[in-house]
Design goal:
Elements lengths: L3 E7 L3 H16 L5 E8 L3 H11 L3 E3 L2 H5 L6 E4 L3 H13 L3 E4 L7 H14 L3 E3 L7 H11 L6 E9 L22 H4 L1 H11 L3 E9 L4 E3 L7 E3 L5 E8 L4 E7 L8 E8 L2 E6 L5 E6 L10 E4 L20 H16 L9 H20 L3 E2 L5
The protein binds nicotinamide-adenine-dinucleotide.
The site of nicotinamide-adenine-dinucleotide (NAD) has 22 residues, from helix 1 and helix 4.
Length: 377
């Protein structure tokens, strides 16, 4: 009989529901060393929590996340709340000796992320952060193509995460604009593409950046008054230099009119190039030098059972995995780590490194100069 992994879920919005699904799907398709079980759900009020717990078939509900953190039946606290709450909840969970799985961005600043990382490491606790796109089998293929030398030396990485959910100036103020939760698009979306850049190319050494707020005030409720000033960035762009000598760009925008999920990169190597775009997350485009004249071009590789983790869901190629399946792969890897398997990355320490890049972008934009990542503690 495998032992249970008892999860306390905090938040039942977009990500809370995706996590709940993932924890259910993972043991159905993967062989896990532990049996994940969501034992309690916390949300902002008793009513919200009870309603969501009923729908998600979670046995207990509470209107106070502190109940989850101090619950002796909980092994792992899974945080899917707005960003401004991550640090307080994660710290309380660590102090209570629980493993923590937190949505990205881990904390409002690198200093906060470091505090969490050090607290967890002092306690010897496992930590996990939800940079799920790194779990896409096609992202893993891109990493393998680079690590194996198939595309040669990496010369350039052009990365972007652009969406348009804040592009309408009529979208009212929300927690995403709360400076208590940290930066704007550069933290919300930029953190994903920075995670991707580090995963595939390696650490970034220095950068120069610009950030901008396009919609400078928003109504508190749609169409209503009064309005509130927007204090965080809507878009950011940086020139970056990687430790291995590669150069590149990182862009983030949540006002990219028409873009819905444009987390993408173009990687240029000395022997080949890779294009990957999460709007079409089941396809990787690969160019390898040395093709016959007049026949040169990218090949489109569809995700299939020959790629890592795909066959657990589908026996046939090009039948498409989606966002929730990628989340299920993420929680599978968490369950593996909790059952004594390989350590999970990105953990809090890696999320801190990602946050240092976010903070460096903000510092560079503020001071209008190149910034070394080492300047950010
Ligand atoms: N990994 C990804 O791809 C991805 C995608 C979207 C969002 N996120 C991250 O997930 C987190 C949540 O985003 P979302 O889009 O699910 O937001 P959301 O607004 O849909 O959900 C937030 C949930 O937290 C609850 N909540 C608010 N205050 C609370 C409190 N005090 N105690 C308990 N619960 C509380 C809300 O009621 C809601 O259920 C954010 O950190 C965001 O950056 C990650």
């Amino acid at each position: 009989m495998i032992r249970p992994l008892r999860i306390g879920l905090v938040g039942s919005g977009f990500m809370g529901r995706s996590h709940a699904l993932a924890w259910r799907i993972a043991p159905l398709v993967f062989e896990l060393p532990v049996r994940p079980e969501i034992v309690v759900l916390a949300d902002r009020t008793e009513e919200l929590a009870a309603q969501a717990a009923r729908q998600l078939a979670i046995p207990r509900a509470t209107g106070d996340w502190r109940d989850v953190v101090r619950d002796p039946e909980v092994d792992l606290v899974d945080i899917t709340t707005p960003n401004a709450l991550h640090k307080e909840i994660a710290l309380a969970a660590i102090e209570a000796g629980k493993a923590v799985y937190c949505e990205k961005p881990l904390a409002p600043s690198a200093a906060d992320a470091r505090e969490l990382t050090e607290a967890a490491e002092r306690m010897g606790l496992s930590t996990f952060v939800g940079f799920n796109y790194l779990r896409n089998p096609m992202t893993r293929l891109a990493r393998e193509l680079v690590a194996s030398g198939e595309v040669g030396e990496v010369w350039n990485f052009r990365g972007i995460h652009a969406e348009d959910y804040m592009s309408d100036p009529g979208v009212p103020w929300s927690w995403r604009l709360d400076p208590a939760g940290g930066a704007g698009a550069v933290a919300d979306l930029g953190s994903h593409i920075i995670a991707m850049a580090r995963f595939i190319v390696g650490p970034i050494d220095e950068l120069v950046a610009d950030v901008d707020t396009v919609v400078t005030e928003r109504a508190i409720t749609r169409g209503g008054a009064p309005v509130r000033p927007v204090e965080v960035d809507d878009e950011a762009r940086a020139l970056v230099r990687f430790a291995n000598g590669a150069t590149g760009t990182i862009e983030a925008s949540w006002v990219a009119t028409g873009r819905k999920m444009y987390l993408a990169f173009e990687l240029t190597g000395s022997k080949g190039s890779i294009l990957l775009n999460m709007e079409r997350m089941n396809e990787l485009r690969l160019f390898v030098k040395g093709q016959k004249a007049g026949r040169e071009g990218y090949v489109e590789i569809p995700a299939g059972p020959d790629h890592v983790d795909y066959a657990a869901f589908l026996p046939a190629p090009a039948h498409q995995l989606g966002f929730n399946e990628i989340k299920a792969i993420e929680v599978k890897d968490i369950a593996m780590a909790m059952g004594g398997g390989p350590a999970f990355r990105p953990d809090f320490r890696e999320a801190y490194e990602i946050q240092r890049v976010v903070d460096a972008i903000l510092l560079s934009a503020r001071e209008r100069r190149w910034v070394s990542i080492d300047e950010i503690d």
